[in-house]
Amino acid sequence: xxxxxxxxxxxxxxxxxxxxxxxxxxxxxxxxxxxxxxxxxxxxxxxxxxxxxxxxxxxxxxxxxxxxxxxxxxxxxxxxxxxxxxxxxxxxxxxxxxxxxxxxxxxxxxxxxxxxxxxxxxxxxxxxxxxxxxxxxxxxxxxxxxxxxxxxxxxxxxxxxxxxxxxxxxxxxxxxxxxxxxxxxxxxxxxxxxxxxxxxxxxxxxxxxxxxxxxxxxxxxxxxxxxxxxxxxxxxxxxxxxxxxxxxxxxxxxxxxxxxxxxxxxxxxxxxxxxxxxxxxxxxxxxxxxxxxxxxxxxxxxxxxxxxxxxxxxxxxxxxxxxxxxxxxxxxxxxxxxxxxxxxxxxxxxxxxxxxxxxxxxxxxxxxxxxxxxxxxxxxxxxxxxxxxxxxxxxxxxxxxxxxxxxxxxxxxxxxxxxxxxxxxxxxxxxxxx
Length: 434
Known about the structure:
Layout: E1 2-8, E2 16-18, E3 30-35, E4 38-51, E5 63-66, H1 69-96, E6 101-107, E7 113-119, H2 127-137, E8 140-145, H3 148-155, H4 179-184, H5 191-194, H6 209-218, E9 225-228, E10 231-239, E11 244-249, E12 257-260, E13 265-268, H7 319-338, H8 390-406
Parallel strand pairs: 7-8
Antiparallel strand pairs: 1-2, 1-4, 3-4, 3-5, 6-7, 9-10, 9-13, 10-11, 11-12
């Protein structure tokens, strides 16, 4: 057994073993360790403990010291320097017109090396960029191109499940995921449903893949020809989680039924012909404690629990009670229609009661006699004759009579224009041609 402590580097989720060299280090405490890249300021996630020698990779690196106050200040200065380097590098990238996206900047504990992580669709020639950055920071510059999965791991985020991303929390390394896993688990093949924040297939598809593969070995394939306690039929659906199959019986193909894997006998695996298949006379036994298999329904209760008792009002009385209730309702309606309509006190208008004034107060006014409601007779409307301008008519008649005696024609404004259009000549013929 070897005594070690577990530490985790910044931005990573994998634990590494280091030799404490007799130092007692508690969890959540920062230490300075020696690595192949130099001294590093890291966090201890698990204190002194013993592990088997087989799990330790030799040679085992050692812990230099527990972080002091000066180490904390140096680490804070490096974080500030990283923010400045990030903004300067973005400006340099825009000045050189490079197709790359800067993701993160890391500065080592000693401050003599700065690493820039970026993503790009293809290869990028950043030699001129490295020269500009080296002249600005006076340190060793390193540019690393990473993928979209590494970008999501560095930046972090929230998945569609509502929890932090697995890659940024506990995954040591990325596991290969294929679309076949989604098909095996009967998931929707919509890319937006099975893709993560990085745009690739979600890593969690791998978590239950082994259980689905083990259950798939014990369950028949779809379209298999099986024998059930109710007869033979074809498998139309498989539920790997509950280890049940949905079978369309030859006797009732419209209503598929659900059976457990122990209640069926596979006569033919997968698609194929039924020719030459012998159907045994004895049917498979039904599972203990199970009645007749009910038709498969999405609303059926699963898990063998008793149905919830729902009291019904209609079940309390029979048809006689319903008829008596309807008769009572008719008699009440008839009584209400026979009674004279009386205005309810809530709907009556509010009337203020007049109170007599005291003797020394203002005298009351004498009541006025009721006004006679007599309307005057309507006046008869007489027709109004329009007034005619007799002077103008007489003058016009005198002008017409004088014009007739002298034989003068009518004035031009009163003469009607000639509405007859002249005849058009046919084309191609002159005035003297026949």
